[in-house]
C-alpha cells in the first residue's frame, strides 16, 4: 500500500483521512468514556446511516446532486445530536433513554430509505463497513476542517470539559457553562462520527472511539496520558488496519477494529503478567 499510496490519489486521501480520524475519534472518545456515554456513538452512527441512505435515495430517484450522501449523513448526525441533547433535558431523571430513542429512529429511517432506493447497493455497503478508496479530495478537506474544529474546541475548553466529565456538579457551581459546553460537545461528537464512518463504517464507528481509550486506561496514570495513549493506539490501529485491508481486499473497518481489539488484549495480558510477577516478588520478600 505504501508504494500505491504515492501513485493513487484515492489511496492517499484514505490514508490521510485515517490519520485524522485516528486523532479525533480517540480524542473525543476519552471524554465520552469518562462521561459514561459510550453508547452515544452507536446512536448517532445509525442516524448518520439514515442520512447516508437518504442522500443515496435522492441521487438515485431524483438525481439531486447538490449534496453528496456524505453531506446528508453529517446533517442527519448533527440533527440527531441536537435531538439527543433536547431529550436529555426532557428526561432529566432518565437521560440515558435519549440514546435508544434516537438509535431506533435512525434504524427505522435507514430501512425505509434503503427500501425506497431499491435495496442495499455497493455504496451503502461501503458506508456500513468502510472503504479503502471512497474518499474524494472534497471529503478530505471537509474532514480536515472537522479535525480543526474538534482539536480547537478541546484545546480551548479542556479545563471546563475535564471538570464537567469528572464532577459536573462542582463544575456548574464553579461557573462552568455546562449546557453550552455539552451542546457543543455533542455537536463535535456528531461530526467526528460522521467523518469516521468513511473509514470504519457505521456498524463499527463506536469501537474506534472506545477500544483505544479502554486500552490506554490500562497504562495511563493521568487523564492527559489517557488521551495521548488513546490517540497513539488509535493511529496504530488505523495504519495497520488500512494496510491489512488493502492487501486482503476487505473493508478496512473490520481490520481496524480487530487490530484495536488485539492491542487491548495484548495490554490486558501484559498488565496481568506484570501484576502476577509483582505479586510473586512481594510474596518472596514476605517469606
From TrEMBL:
<keyword id="KW-1133">Transmembrane helix</keyword>
<dbReference type="InterPro" id="IPR037294">
    <property type="entry name" value="ABC_BtuC-like"/>
</dbReference>
<dbReference type="InterPro" id="IPR001626">
    <property type="entry name" value="ABC_TroCD"/>
</dbReference>
<feature type="transmembrane region" description="Helical">
    <location>
        <begin position="227"/>
        <end position="248"/>
    </location>
</feature>
<feature type="transmembrane region" description="Helical">
    <location>
        <begin position="254"/>
        <end position="270"/>
    </location>
</feature>
<feature type="transmembrane region" description="Helical">
    <location>
        <begin position="64"/>
        <end position="85"/>
    </location>
</feature>
<feature type="transmembrane region" description="Helical">
    <location>
        <begin position="97"/>
        <end position="120"/>
    </location>
</feature>
<keyword id="KW-0813">Transport</keyword>
<feature type="transmembrane region" description="Helical">
    <location>
        <begin position="15"/>
        <end position="33"/>
    </location>
</feature>
<feature type="transmembrane region" description="Helical">
    <location>
        <begin position="140"/>
        <end position="158"/>
    </location>
</feature>
<comment type="similarity">
    <text>Belongs to the ABC-3 integral membrane protein family.</text>
</comment>
<dbReference type="Pfam" id="PF00950">
    <property type="entry name" value="ABC-3"/>
</dbReference>
<protein>
    <submittedName>
        <fullName>Metal ABC transporter permease</fullName>
    </submittedName>
</protein>
<keyword id="KW-0472">Membrane</keyword>
<keyword id="KW-0812">Transmembrane</keyword>
Amino acid at each position: 500500500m505504501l508504494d500505491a499510496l504515492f501513485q493513487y490519489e484515492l489511496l492517499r486521501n484514505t490514508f490521510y483521512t485515517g490519520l485524522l480520524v485516528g486523532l479525533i475519534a480517540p480524542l473525543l472518545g476519552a471524554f465520552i468514556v469518562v462521561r459514561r456515554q459510550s453508547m452515544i456513538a452507536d446512536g448517532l452512527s445509525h442516524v448518520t446511516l439514515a442520512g447516508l441512505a437518504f442522500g443515496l435515495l435522492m441521487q438515485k430517484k431524483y438525481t439531486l446532486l447538490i449534496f453528496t450522501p456524505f453531506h446528508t449523513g453529517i446533517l442527519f448526525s448533527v440533527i440527531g445530536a441536537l435531538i439527543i441533547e433536547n431529550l436529555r433535558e426532557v428526561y432529566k431523571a432518565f437521560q440515558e433513554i435519549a440514546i435508544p430513542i434516537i438509535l431506533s429512529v435512525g434504524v427505522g429511517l435507514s430501512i425505509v430509505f434503503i427500501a425506497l432506493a431499491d435495496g442495499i447497493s455497493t455504496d451503502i455497503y461501503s458506508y456500513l463497513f468502510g472503504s479503502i478508496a471512497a474518499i474524494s479530495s472534497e471529503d478530505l478537506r471537509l474532514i480536515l476542517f472537522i479535525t480543526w474544529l474538534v482539536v480547537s474546541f478541546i484545546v480551548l475548553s479542556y479545563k471546563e470539559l475535564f471538570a464537567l466529565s469528572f464532577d459536573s456538579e462542582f463544575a456548574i457551581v464553579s461557573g462552568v457553562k455546562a449546557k453550552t459546553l455539552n451542546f457543543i460537545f455533542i455537536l463535535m461528537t456528531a461530526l467526528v462520527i460522521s467523518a469516521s464512518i468513511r473509514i470504519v463504517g457505521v456498524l463499527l464507528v463506536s469501537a474506534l472511539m472506545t477500544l483505544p481509550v479502554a486500552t490506554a486506561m490500562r497504562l495511563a496514570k493521568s487523564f492527559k496520558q489517557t488521551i495521548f495513549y488513546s490517540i497513539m493506539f488509535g493511529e496504530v490501529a488505523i495504519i495497520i488496519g488500512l494496510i491489512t485491508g488493502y492487501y486482503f481486499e476487505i473493508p478496512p473497518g473490520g481490520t481496524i477494529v480487530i487490530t484495536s481489539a488485539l492491542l487491548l488484549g495484548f495490554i490486558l495480558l501484559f498488565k496481568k503478567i506484570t501484576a502476577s510477577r509483582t505479586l510473586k516478588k512481594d510474596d518472596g520478600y514476605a517469606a
